[in-house]
Design a protein that fits this description.
GO terms for molecular function: cysteine desulfurase activity; iron-sulfur cluster binding; metal ion binding. It is an enzyme of class 2 (transferase). Its EC number is 2.8.1.7. The protein folds into two domains: about 130 residues, Aspartate Aminotransferase, domain 1 (Alpha-Beta Complex), CATH 3.90.1150.10; about 240 residues, Type I PLP-dependent aspartate aminotransferase-like (Major domain) (Aspartate Aminotransferase, domain 2), CATH 3.40.640.10. Helices cover about 40% and strands about 15% of the residues. The protein has eleven helices and 15 strands. A seven-stranded mixed beta sheet has the order 2-8-7-6-5-3-4, with helices on both faces. A four-stranded antiparallel beta sheet has the order 9-10-15-12. Strands 1-11 form a two-stranded parallel sheet. Strand 13 and strand 14 form a beta hairpin. Helix 1 packs antiparallel against helix 7 and helix 2 runs parallel beside helix 7. It is globular, with a radius of gyration of 21 Å.
């Protein structure tokens, strides 16, 4: 039995998206910037996909959607596009639980003289909106807080945080890569100026993403050249990937309500079946949580015989794909910075695991995974 429980890392490309990509490769392969018929066929594909992606997030103006190579580039374009418009370093605010696409970009800005405030989180991984209120300064250029945390599944109070930033006249960005296609997003009502999403997190192809830019927000481009994507992202568009992204976005919007409720039931079933395992601690907020996301850490992790990486390998041998939070660099296992920020010990932060569900996951898959994980932990955990 093969069970894939790593949908937060990537999702399988759905057949409808593949079919759209194949049509582009065969018939609409022109350069979208060319004025002749071949180019205009490709341009039509890009603009149709832009409308489709805009529909997923309820953006009334499709030109607010800028295609990128993925969520990481969208995050970088948001942060650097704002900060590079200043002639002197200013101040930005992020959280302690950002994706590395944000946290590493902020670290780079610090090297250039920018002041970066990192908002702490509680034991469930949530930012306190009052902390944002206190952290804002007269020279704050941007606030960026992740919408749904990929490692522990916690959803942030984005509406409240965005309203606070707005009340101070500060731009607000959110990385919604894990949320888009799994929960409703309405950028016309949500107080965000910039929002990042990624194709391969919602059953589209890898290599495509998008940044929503609220009309009136001005960005400096990261990539200069031919002026594609409203002048914000030069370079010939990856038309096949964009076409697949558009189809996946449309289908995600159609399936959203039924699939979200189904995933929540499966998610809660897996949490319940693993609740009685000694030393296996649920992480993240159980109420404000991504619908497909289950995560734990190991109380007795030691980084050698027992760690999140150990469980990934053991379950892989059983045909089950999960992921771990701790990172291995230079041969040494480092504790998860996300779990450390939430107050877990270094040992526990070596034992973070994540199981993320998707379209093909069934009740039988959940039950089998719970049984296998219990057996593995019984064998590995010191008695």
């Amino acid at each position: 039995m093969q069970i894939y429980l790593d949908h937060s890392a990537t999702t399988p490309t759905r057949p409808e998206a593949i079919a759209a990509m194949q049509a582009v490769f065969a018939q609409q392969w022109g350069n979208p910037s060319s004025l002749h018929e071949w180019g205009q066929r490709a341009a039509t594909v890009v603009e149709q996909a832009r409308v489709q992606v805009a529909g997923l997030i309820n953006a009334t103006k499709s030109e607010s959607v800028i295609f990128t190579s993925g969520g990481t580039e969208a995050d970088n374009q948001a942060i650097m596009g704002i900060t590079r418009s200043y002639t002197a370093p200013q101040h930005i605010i992020i959280s302690d639980v950002e994706h590395s696409a944000i946290s590493e970009t902020a670290r780079l800005l610090e090297m250039w003289g920018w002041q970066v405030t990192r908002l702490g989180v509680d034991a469930k991984g949530r930012v306190n909106p009052q902390d944002l209120e206190v952290a804002l300064q007269n020279n704050t250029a941007l606030v960026s807080v992740i919408y749904g945390q990929s490692e522990v599944g916690t959803i942030q109070p984005i509406e409240e945080l965005g309203n606070i930033a707005k009340s101070h006249g500060v731009l607000f960005h959110t990385d919604a890569v894990q949320v888009a296609g799994r929960l409703p997003i309405n950028v016309e009502k949500l107080p965000v100026d910039l929002l990042s999403i990624s194709s391969h997190k919602l059953y589209g192809p890898q290599g495509a993403g998008a940044l929503y830019v609220r009309p009136g927000v001005e960005l400096v481009p990261l990539i200069c050249g031919g002026g594609q994507e409203m002048g914000l992202r030069s370079g010939t568009q990856a038309v096949p990937a964009i076409a697949g992204f558009g189809v996946a976005a449309t289908l995600a919007a159609v399936e959203l309500s039924t699939e979200t409720s189904r995933l929540i039931q499966l998610r809660d079933r897996l949490f319940a079946q693993l609740a009685d395992i000694p030393g296996l601690i649920p992480t993240g907020d159980r109420y404000y949580r991504l619908p497909h996301h289950v995560s734990f850490c190991l109380e007795h992790a030691d980084g050698e015989k027992l760690s999140g990486k150990t469980l990934v390998r053991q379950l892989n041998l059983a045909g089950i794909a999960i992921s771990a939070g701790a990172a291995c660099r230079s041969g040494k296992l480092n504790p998860s910075p996300i779990l450390l920020a939430m107050g877990y010990s270094e040992k526990a932060a070596l034992g973070g695991i994540r199981m993320t569900l998707g379209h093909d996951i069934t009740v039988a898959d959940i039950d089998w995974t719970a049984m296998v994980l219990k057996q593995v932990l019984q064998r590995l955990t010191p008695q």
